[in-house]
Design a protein that fits this description.
5 helices, globular, alpha/beta, 22% helix, 5-stranded parallel beta sheet
Length: 226
């Protein structure tokens, strides 16, 4: 399918949000990803908007200076871009009776933004805790939007941790086994969904297992090459 570049914006330092408008039918589930095909290559990105925005595919990505990211950042408004396919199984569970613990590192927040937006719009009764880890406040994409969701979603708890920010007065620890046990004493009551850079995902999965979480209660998604 073909999409037109509707808008692009640097939402925090070195993080670009790109919105495409697609004028043909498509569907997706919250948490899925899509491919962007440019002359500089082909990359997959999590969709960060809700499926209720039927003509929109939105992504957010770190600007790394790669040829592909430079080409994406250089697209002019209205440019036609080949998109798709849409794929992925790291999606909002259909059974929403079980508490969810979402753990995101950096730009790994994007699939969770799609899920949370959908939950708000559909007024779903999900009980959700989001742990969002960044180095500092300045690099935390969607910080304000998440703060707003804490006011709009009665069953949503947000835990922000900034691991290298001397000015941050909140949580600063990395997500280790003690962190998990402290916030979730009954560890296997929840389903844990973890997404971010591979090293972070591996470390968090190891922490969850060390804390006593059974492996079938953990879903992971790696962001590679972003």
């Amino acid at each position: 399918m073909t999409g037109k570049l509707k808008s692009k914006e640097e939402i925090v330092k070195d993080t670009l949000q790109v919105v495409f408008e697609v004028n043909e039918p498509f569907t997706f589930r919250p948490g899925q990803y899509f491919f962007v095909n440019l002359p500089a290559g082909r990359k997959q990105f999590s969709i960060n908007n809700s499926p209720n925005q039927s003509n929109i595919l939105s992504l957010a990505t770190r600007l790394t200076g790669s040829d592909f990211k430079n080409a994406l950042n250089g697209l002019p408004a209205g440019a036609d871009v080949e998109l798709g396919p849409i794929a992925g199984v790291f999606t909002l569970p259909e059974d929403q009776s079980r508490p969810l613990v979402l753990i995101a590192g950096g730009i790994g927040i994007t699939p969770f933004m799609s899920m949370l937006s959908y939950i708000k719009e559909q007024n779903l009764p999900c009980q959700i805790t989001l742990i969002y880890s960044n180095r500092n406040r300045q690099s935390a994409a969607f910080f304000n939007e998440l703060q707003e969701l804490t006011r709009l979603l009665p069953n949503f708890k947000l835990i922000l941790t900034m691991t290298d920010d001397p000015d941050w007065e909140g949580e600063k620890r990395k997500v280790d086994a003690d962190f998990i046990r402290e916030y979730f004493p009954d560890v296997n009551k929840n389903l844990y969904m973890v997404v971010g850079p591979p090293a972070m995902v591996e470390a968090v999965e190891r922490a969850l297992l060390e804390a006593g979480v059974e492996k079938e209660n953990i879903k992971i998604e790696n962001f590679t090459g972003y």
